[in-house]
Specification:
This protein is of the alpha+beta class. The chain is built from 11 helices and 25 strands. α1 packs across α2 and α10 crosses α11.
Length: 471
């Protein structure tokens, strides 16, 4: 109603009325008939053309109809302000959707859905192993229920591979994440390591969902010579051996007694069953898998210390024939084990530096494959560098800066006589001090273990180049 008491200009047709109410003309006629829609007629009540209606009366009818649940819903015209706000939020939602699609496309271009649902990395939280996908998203948790577990940083330096080729930062693997049983899904091999070695419980194999498939507990009671050793062992490394041309992947573990010298390496099947063991009367420090002819059949090079001789060693083994123990006299030999299956077992000479620094024994701490299939062996204390060709023939011995520094230090302390170090004479002497086990005794001549020729013959059935290189 206007201020002068007159009604504002009415809607003068069904088209105008229906447009205001937001419906079609037929609906307006039905509402007039059944629900009393306030429509006026200029002539006969039966006329459908001469009609008019006032805005205020329509609004009042609408308010009354909206408050009555039994009445039909009425479409109201939306205000321009409401339409503007709705348009804005539609644009926002569409923008978020487009951004999400772009982000998802980027992720999917780098990682397949299968990759995102399988372990790729991990972290340690208290006693739990937490599996992460390729994007760092948590997949599952496995509670080891082991207190005092090493933290994530300690584990990560041992994963995903042996980091660094330097003489200080070499770390053997504690965790491996890969498909080990050829089922197209990623498994986790996880070693328990705590600040108390006696609490270490061994190795877990978990499937891609974090379910335990099997466990491996190292060690058993053993007797070497007249000394009896308990079943207290811990693991130093776990690795996966690549599948050969016709074979399956296998698992390599290195274990040692706590706190004494026996150690061994074991080869496990994907289901955790032991396929073979090789024992050493001393400790293992490092290993390499070297395929000298790229035929998919690597040999296992292992190094460490031999307690009986107090010297570092390098042994070469066929991964498919692990058995027995290192060559020892009766005092250090295990009567329950056969002779070892090593193709080569090499002892290294000691130096004046390592004798002064580590009087009981020296160890070969690091071995490294050369591009030509040869190998470098580096003792823990002296850091002298021994280089062998692919046939395990000594090629050179080099004095390192670390050796020179220690040598000068001991001279200043009066433990080594003063004077210049004759490096040429020392390296020649060290090269001559290398000895090989020929199956019966130690020899200064380069030779392999003749008692294990049958292993070489078996290798030759698959690849004669291995034997050619070794011979």
């Amino acid at each position: 109603m206007k201020e002068n008491g007159l009604k504002e200009k009415p809607f003068s047709s069904w088209k105008e009325i229906s447009a205001y109410l937001g419906c079609d003309e037929r609906t307006c006629l039905r509402w007039e008939k059944k629900h009393g829609l306030p429509v006026h007629r200029a002539g006969s009540k039966l006329s459908k053309s001469l009609v008019f209606a006032y805005r205020e009366e329509l609004d009042d009818w609408l308010r009354r109809r909206e408050g009555t649940p039994s009445q039909p819903p009425v479409r109201r015209r939306l205000s321009p302000a409401f339409l503007a706000r709705a348009h804005f939020w539609v644009l926002v939602v569409l923008g978020v959707a487009v951004f999400s699609i772009l982000v998802l496309s980027k992720i999917m271009s780098n990682s397949s859905p299968a990759e995102l649902l399988q372990p790729y990395n991990f972290k340690i939280e208290r006693s739990e192993f937490v599996a992460l996908d390729k994007e760092g998203v948590e997949l599952w948790r496995f509670d080891t229920r082991t207190p005092d577990l090493f933290d994530s940083d300690s584990y990560q330096v041992h994963f995903p591979y042996r980091k660094g080729i330097g003489l200080i930062d070499r770390k053997l693997p504690w965790v491996k994440i890969e498909d080990i049983n050829a089922d197209g899904r990623t498994e986790v091999l996880f070693m328990i390591h705590t600040h108390n070695e006696n609490a270490d419980t061994g190795l877990y194999c978990l499937d891609h969902r974090g379910r335990k498939l099997w466990t491996y507990t190292p060690g058993r009671e053993m007797t070497f010579g007249t000394r009896h050793f308990s079943e207290d062992y811990t693991l130093d490394a776990v690795d996966v051996i690549p599948a050969g041309p016709q074979g399956q992947k296998r698992i390599l573990v290195l274990a040692r007694h706590i706190p004494n010298f026996p150690s061994y390496l074991a080869l496990l099947a994907p289901d955790g069953k032991t396929l073979g063991e090789y024992w050493n009367a001393g400790r293992f420090s490092d290993y390499e898998l070297i395929d000298v002819d790229d035929d998919g059949l690597p040999l296992l090079y292992v190094a460490g210390t031999n307690n009986e001789y107090g010297r570092g060693f390098l042994a070469i083994l066929d991964i498919n024939n692990l058995r027995g123990c290192s060559p020892q006299t009766d005092e250090f030999r295990c009567a329950d084990l056969p002779a070892g299956s090593e193709l080569f077992y090499v002892l290294f000479p000691r130096t004046v530096v390592d004798r002064l620094e580590f009087a009981p024994r020296e160890s070969i701490a690091f071995i490294e494959e050369r591009k030509d299939g040869g190998v470098m062996a580096i003792p823990l204390s002296s850091r002298v560098i021994f280089e062998f060709d692919a046939s395990i023939r000594i090629e050179s011995v080099s004095i390192s800066d670390s050796f020179r520094e220690k040598y000068r230090k001991f001279q200043e302390e009066g433990r080594i006589p003063p004077g210049l170090l004759n490096e040429q004479a020392m390296t020649e002497s060290l090269a001559k001090g290398i000895v090989y086990f020929n199956g019966a005794r130690w020899s200064a001549a380069r030779t392999w273990n003749m008692k294990n020729k049958w292993i070489a013959d078996r290798i030759a059935e698959g690849s004669t180049s291995h034997v050619r290189e070794l011979k």
